[in-house]
Amino acid sequence: MKKIYSILLGASMFSGAAMADTVSCYVDTQAYDQYSENQCFGGGPLSNHRQGAVVFKVNASKPIQSVTWNISAFGAIPRANSCNGSTCIVDVGRGERNVEGCVDKIYYKDYTWADVNWCATANAYYWADGQSPLSGSEK
Fold it and tell me: What are the boundaries of the signal sequence (predicted)?
């Protein structure tokens, strides 16, 4: 009976660690932003001097040294020197943008590494400050 409890305890500990390994994101807004696992939504008005942004973050079961990111989206540009560690900031312009942030490889602080395919998708919609996003459709 002790063996069964030991096996169940070990299996539950392993499955808990596996569920922690994900990518989270948020779409930058004027409000307080919180990360959401696997998918996020947001947006808002942009002034002429402000760029919209999506932020991705790795949630791993061990401390991370560095990460290899793969960002795919039309019109989205990873911010210079921001995608080396556990977070990646991607600049997006006005309009509707779907940005996928994936982690291909993780290097941990304990000198181990892993090939992974963890992704999150961000749906961002930004419009010109002072204009309603519905103004073009209400004619």
Answer: 1-20
Residue with tokens 């989206």: 73
Count Cβ atoms below 10 Å from residue 22 Cβ, excluding itself.
16
* Burial class, 76, CB count within 10 angstroms (exposed 0-12 / middle 13-18 / buried 19+): buried
Which CATH number fits the domain that encloses residue 58? 2.60.40
Instruction: Assess contact for 22 and 120: CB atoms under 8 A.
Output: yes
Count of other CB atoms within 10 angstroms of residue 13:
10
Within a domain: 63: yes
Residue 139 lies in a domain: no
For residues 48 and 130, the answer to whether their CB atoms sit within 8 Å is: no
Q: At 80, is the pLDDT very low, low, confident or very high (cuts 50, 70, 90)?
A: confident
Q: Is residue 58 situated within a structural domain?
A: yes
CA angle centred on 18, ends 118 and 66, rounded to 5°: 50
> What's the confidence (pLDDT) of residue 98?
94
Contact between residue 118 and residue 102 where contact means Cβ atoms under 8 Å apart: yes
More confident residue, 50 or 71: 71
> CA quadruple 71, 75, 76, 80: dihedral positive or negative?
positive
